[in-house]
Amino acid sequence: MDCDWHLYLGGNLVYPRPHVLLGRIPEEAEHAVVQNFQVQESQALAVQEKHYEKDSGKTLAHLVRSKSSDADNLSQCSSAYQCERAGSSYSGDEATSGNARRQYSQYATVTASPLVGLPEFSHLGWGHWFTLRDLEHATNRFSKENVIGEGGYGVVYRGRLINGTDVAIKKLLNNIGQAEKEFRVEVEAIGHVRHKNLVRLLGYCVEGIHRMLVYECVNNGNLEQWLHGAMRQHGVLTWEARMKVVLGIAKALAYLHEAIEPKVVHRDIKSSNILIDEEFNGKLSDFGLAKLLGAGKSHITTRVMGTFGYVAPEYANTGLLNERSDVYSFGVLLLEAVTGRDPVDYGRPANEVHLVEWLKMMVGRRRAEEVVDPDMELKPATRALKRALLVALRCVDPDAEKRPTMGQVVRMLEAGVPSREDRWSRRGHSSNADSESKASSSEFEISSDRRESGLSARFQS
């Protein structure tokens, strides 16, 4: 099984002391204050009950079959498979870090650890300690046949542990520079955390000059591939599947920002870093640029890191970094999921190059319903679309202080999740359901400083 290698490469961090651990995690995480939106329990999401070709007996495909073939081919190793990285062994919506615990849903599941059956080795507190010999055995002595990809800081291999678990092994280059910095930050940022929507760091190897990180593999692509790339030939993600993915990422970010100490600012939220499992849960990956911040703290940097199109304007312009930077990036991600467009696309007309500005223009012209991905056969209900766009536009507010917290974003998105009865009604009476949605939906006022964004628009039914 191949894995997508580019998610494991890169980083920009500080020289490590391999045994450095995270600071003490408080036993109880303070709940975020949510204003203007009622807290609701998470509800099941509607899906298209079509089976995925790869495992038709087990997996619901949250997609609609594409009518045209994708231009991308699946010959590259990264096209069909994705590897999880970061995170740890948490299952369910309940998230923990050490003794800290916070719930975003009443539902939780328990799954067996992929480390079951492995011999017991020493632990440093943030993952399983693999020996060099273990990983040589897993990769057939790091054979070229097992190379998934290469990057500036190392090589990624596919491997299989002695208990049969498929993994991706990132072997950092033998230098004392950027690769070492990435090793420390990734381990410190996510070595202790547990959350369903964070990909899992299984362990590491620190032996002599060798520095390696071991991740689980996940084999259902990433959000970028489903929206724009090779996975699209399998079908087009439904609205429900897209919202399920982004809601999961919102929960992961709320956990990183609000439920643990020090909080973690990811700094590189983008669709290619959102892995998707066979149940179409979104999993946040790639913590190579993550920054740990104390409560109420911000960070000023002279070297802005991130991906063009997703980076918050205040971070790009001044180097000011805090959790609001991630909120902006999430807003762009949400717009990308709704529209099926890249954040920046120079192949489009000048007024459509930048997704955020184009979206604001369309809303300002009262053409919000035209922004939905045209390849989606079953369009979202008007109220659901309005809510998603409202959340996204609040997240990309040019004034960072006006952006919601990720905890608030979770509540807003969950409030728009349809009930099971609504979904069945919509399947059987789609036209009537849409009319009822239009009749019952309230106006959403979206206003921003005209000097900053030029947007003062109102959604009307």
UniProtKB/TrEMBL annotation:
Recorded topology in the membrane: Single-pass membrane protein
* Similarity annotation: Belongs to the protein kinase superfamily.
Q: Which Gene3D superfamilies match?
A: Phosphorylase Kinase, domain 1 (3.30.200.20), Transferase(Phosphotransferase) domain 1 (1.10.510.10)
First-listed, main subcellular location of the protein, grouped into a coarse class: membrane
> Which GO terms fall under molecular function for this chain's record?
ATP binding; protein serine/threonine kinase activity
Signal sequence region: none
Question: One Pfam family name from the record?
Answer: Pkinase
Q: Where does ATP bind?
A: K171
Q: What is the phylogenetic placement of the source species in the record? A: Eukaryota, Viridiplantae, Streptophyta, Embryophyta, Tracheophyta
A single Gene Ontology CC annotation of this entry is: membrane
**Species for this entry:** Panicum virgatum (Blackwell switchgrass)
* Start and end residues of each Protein kinase domain: 142-417
Calcium is among the record's keywords: no
Q: What class of enzyme is it?
A: transferase
Which residue stretches belong to region Disordered?
418-461
Q: Which reaction does it catalyse?
A: L-threonyl-[protein] + ATP = O-phospho-L-threonyl-[protein] + ADP + H(+); L-seryl-[protein] + ATP = O-phospho-L-seryl-[protein] + ADP + H(+)
InterPro entries annotated for this entry?
Kinase-like_dom_sf (IPR011009), Prot_kinase_dom (IPR000719), Protein_kinase_ATP_BS (IPR017441), RLK_Ser/Thr-Kinase (IPR052232), Ser/Thr_kinase_AS (IPR008271)
| Key words of the record | ATP-binding, Kinase, Membrane, Nucleotide-binding, Phosphoprotein, Serine/threonine-protein kinase, Transferase, Transmembrane, Transmembrane helix
Q: What is this protein called?
A: non-specific serine/threonine protein kinase
Its Enzyme Commission number(s) read: 2.7.11.1
Q: Where is the composition biased (Low complexity)?
A: 430-445
Q: Where in the cell is it found?
A: Membrane
